[in-house]
Amino acid sequence: MLLIPCPYCGPRAEVEFRHAGQAHLVRRTEVSDSDWADYLYARENVRGLHRERWRHIHGCDQFFNFVRDTLSDRISASYKVGEQPPEPIR
User: Fold this and answer.
1) Number of other residues whose CB lies within 10 A of the CB of residue 59
2) What is the mean pLDDT of residues 72-84?
């Protein structure tokens, strides 16, 4: 089980949260069908550090982002939506 560091409430068990996809995606208007399909379905699938968006549904109900290593599941930084991502601890 992951211990997820909510920037609003502190560390909590992963069962209190829901994954909300890749962080820092920008929704644009007036795009082609191909660009819209890319926005909906194309995601990075990196090995290593990855920025993710989560929601604390059984707590503060806030969205936030964190940096997770996809190889080890280690969470190295968490931050509020709209904040600059901190430098992850390697």
Assistant:
1) 15
2) 92
